[in-house]
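Trying the structure run again after the queue cleared.
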Amino acid sequence: MSKKCTIDADRAYVESDSAYGELETAFLNSENVDVYLEMPSGKRYEGNCTITDFSLDLQYDDLVTYSISLQGNGPLKIILESNQTEAITSNEIEM
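Done. Tokens:
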């Protein structure tokens, strides 16, 4: 039985945020993205995902937020301390 993952996130929109631009481009071009997640506990995951939803929320006050939904192309892998790699390639997005 194959495992799949989904990731939903809301973030504050910052015009100068290069990660937002990369996510937007990947979504518009129907490109998959490599994701790297680090939980507050320090547990780390990585995997490849398809962006299924990407939207802006233009609120009444000054803060603009965006929401993103990702569908994993297979399970997320747990990264163990001894197998950790620090390099992030240009198509990997840190969330």
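The CA atoms of residues 6 and 91 lie 19 Å apart. Worth checking whether this holds up in the mutant runs.
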